[in-house]
Amino acid sequence: MNPFGSPVLSVPEQSAEDLGVSSNEQQVIAFISGIPEEINDSWLEKILSTCGEIASWKRVQSADGSPQAFGFCEFKSIHDATRTVRVLGTGGLWTMPSTYSQPLNIQLDAKKKHHHERGIDSKQNDSDILQSLERIFDEIEKSKSVAQNGNEGKLSPKESANDEELVGFSLDLEEAWEKDQAKKARHKRYVTAAEEREKHISIALKERESRLERNAMRELDDVEEKQRRQEAMSALLSKWDDSQEEQLGEHEYYRDRQRWWRRRKSERAHEMEVDEADRYRQEREESANTNEAATATDQRDVIEALIKEIPSDPKLLFEWPVKWEYIDANLVKTKVEPAVRKRLVEYLGGEGDDSSVDELTEYVTAHIQQHKPPQGLVEELEMVLVDEALVFVARIWRFVVYESEACARKL
Questions:
Q1: Residues β-bridged to residue 54
Q2: Where, if anywhere, are coiled coils annotated (predicted)?
Q3: Beta partners for 72?
């Protein structure tokens, strides 16, 4: 696995018996990282060849063609590979000049690692290699000086050929890496959306529980207030002496019964109005909760039934008679276009700096607005989405069918 997170070129493993050679004669692939910016492919190939005989050197490039700080070197034998690690690797015999930002890091193919120690050739004349490396780095320094003075020469034919060869190699790696990143991004979006839905549901449930709790507390307060008034009245009546109160004449009932009755009727009417309003409020809240739940359930059932009614098979889906009279410019702009853009970002792996997503979104929405058949859209998008064009168009077409049916059925 590439330590930068990009996929690594897989190499079929064959045994020495299959090849008819000893293990030391088998070619070995090494992962080279930490390549300084100052060292181009031509110089690095010279450096690696000084330590051991190599079959190929391929440096990874980004999508815009700029060289990355890592690549893959195929050595012709385990001796060549281990000698290179011993000389150039971290803590090796050769120490890069301090002007370079970082040392080379060389990792052998994991399947060949067990040969590392056995492959060391202690009899190799290391002084010759070190002297050669010294000369190479002197030449590199001279070329840097020339470049700084504005006299940088053109690439040699060999360097140009190597660059062209590496473009296809690096693009394959980048494409695999980008697909993996797009897959992870889609998964992350799905997880985020699920978490958001759970969050909204949790908030709605808490609000409902809070509303029910407030209603329960209000009803409890009403019950306690009525009970308090009843207890106060019972205590008063238990000590009430009607003849004595009549003689004292302090209570309004005994002083002016008509006046007392008029006031009592007014108070009673007010109490009845308050009780009626309270009952109406409770009934309305209960009815609203019931209707809200019933309406939401009915609406969800109707929508789910419509979704199940629309076929998933592209052949049957493309034969569905779309109700185009409901697919107007406003619906395309507010609903269809965002859905198309979202799907394109998923398939292409991001918005990117170029305008490819914008152009494709405009093309797809224009195709839909012109009421053109979906099969033509599949054929046009195959140049961009290749095998995924049919699935992409089917998803978009299913959305168009759903929106037209939802509008027609007034959902």
A1: 75
A2: 206-233
A3: 31, 58
Label residue 78 exposed, middle or buried (CB < 10 Å: 0-12, 13-18, 19+): buried
| Structural domains for the chain | 16-176 (3.30.70.330), 314-408 (1.20.1390.10)
Task: Look up residue 43 and give its amino acid.
Answer: W
**pTM for this one?**
0.33
Encode pLDDT of 234-262 as tens digits: 887 787 777 877 777 777 777 777 888 88
Return the minimum-mean-pLDDT range out of 121-125, 137-141, 229-233: 121-125
Type of residue at 192: T
Contact 92, 85 (CB under 8 A): yes
Residue 166: CB partners within 8 Å, gap ≥ 6? 41, 58, 59, 60, 61
Q: How high is the pLDDT of residue 220?
A: 58
Comparing C-alpha atoms, which of 240, 270, 272, 271 is closest to residue 253?
240
- Phi, psi torsion values for 122, nearest 5 degrees: -70, -15
Q: Using one digit for the tens of pLDDT, what is the confidence trace for 199-217?
A: 888 888 888 877 766 766 6
